[in-house]
Amino acid sequence: MVTKYREVLAVPGMASLLGVSLLARAAITADVMALTLYVVLGLDLSYAAAGGVAAALTAGVALGGPLLGRMIDWRGPRTVLLATVVLQVVFWLSVPSLPYGILLGAAFVAGLSMVPAQAVTRQAIAAMTTERHRRAAFALESVQGELSYLVGPALVILAAAETSPGVVAWLVGAAIAAGGAGIALLNPPLRAEGEAAAGAAGRPPRREWLDARLLAVLLMAFGATALLSGVDLAIVATLQEAGQVSWAAVVVAVFGGASVAGGLIYGALPRPLPTWLLLGLLGLVTIPAGLAHDWPWLCAAVVGVGLLTAPTLSAVADAVSRLAPPGVRGEVTGLQSSAQSAGFAFGSPVVGIAIDASVPAGGFVAAGLAALAAALLGCLLSRRGPQTRAAASTAFMVPATASRRDRETTSG
């Protein structure tokens, strides 16, 4: 397993791309936390007001993903990256001077123009690796994503304890800009040599690629992130009921560590698993986590959930990239980003309603059932796709020698 990952990192430009991308993604995952702290501590407003800014930013990211992806297809990655870097610098520098009403609108625009570090990195990995190394490369990328979620928000909280929330906003903006500019400087290829001619042929009509199979995988992307956002809320609710909220960070760290391990193990497997099966298993192991009533048992319960998280997200991205024609791959990966952002936005309130209507365990049940429903519908939808697309979606439906391409996530 170690040898396979060493070979991936030996691909020219791969190690530098993953390193710079980690900086950008860690900062992007911390943007909501930075804005929350600024609204609550800097403007002295409520958490509800902070939630409004976070919702505006998230809505912008969801709507902007396909638009930025289409621009990447048209103009290439460097132009789009540099343009979004400039807009992010303007936004984050101005945050400490903006009143709340203007901040709401500005956050939405910032979401629309979020640096597409994640999408560009995943497309580049697909172009830079061969069939032999691609699954391991995307396993490393999934680990990178988990590390960014573990590190980014935590660093923002630590920085807020030492300095003002306005300075924290500047630091987050600087890191986003530095990461985006670094990827633009590297200017990684987004199409393999064999795909260049297909991309030059132009954009295929949307009806040719936005079919039942692609809709199925987008639905499963939505279901996966709906589960993840719901699990986070259920963890907090369970520990709050037990009077152990201070242990939430430990449980989340165990969850993230298990996901990192799961991603590395899955990337080393000789054959991938169907996306719907991974998502269904993820939903199944989430439901009994509600039986845990204190932090040690909750740590044990989320290990199973974590082990399946990165593999599921990786399989979703692999399927999307295989179903996306080269001429519209940026737009399709943007649609995946939007689906996952929508899942995050959907999961928390639905699970919150379940918790309020029952007990914290109901949150795990609701999150698990949402994933199971998405897996079932995705499996049924995918079987309605045209037979001519079957070869392109082999990795999505059945175990095969498939590669693991992009795993778009929500925040850029």
Automatic annotation (TrEMBL):
<feature type="transmembrane region" description="Helical">
    <location>
        <begin position="167"/>
        <end position="186"/>
    </location>
</feature>
<feature type="transmembrane region" description="Helical">
    <location>
        <begin position="214"/>
        <end position="239"/>
    </location>
</feature>
<dbReference type="InterPro" id="IPR036259">
    <property type="entry name" value="MFS_trans_sf"/>
</dbReference>
<feature type="transmembrane region" description="Helical">
    <location>
        <begin position="45"/>
        <end position="67"/>
    </location>
</feature>
<keyword id="KW-0812">Transmembrane</keyword>
<dbReference type="GO" id="GO:0022857">
    <property type="term" value="F:transmembrane transporter activity"/>
</dbReference>
<protein>
    <submittedName>
        <fullName>Predicted arabinose efflux permease, MFS family</fullName>
    </submittedName>
</protein>
<keyword id="KW-1133">Transmembrane helix</keyword>
<keyword id="KW-0472">Membrane</keyword>
<feature type="transmembrane region" description="Helical">
    <location>
        <begin position="361"/>
        <end position="381"/>
    </location>
</feature>
<feature type="transmembrane region" description="Helical">
    <location>
        <begin position="273"/>
        <end position="289"/>
    </location>
</feature>
<dbReference type="InterPro" id="IPR011701">
    <property type="entry name" value="MFS"/>
</dbReference>
<dbReference type="Pfam" id="PF07690">
    <property type="entry name" value="MFS_1"/>
</dbReference>
<feature type="transmembrane region" description="Helical">
    <location>
        <begin position="245"/>
        <end position="266"/>
    </location>
</feature>
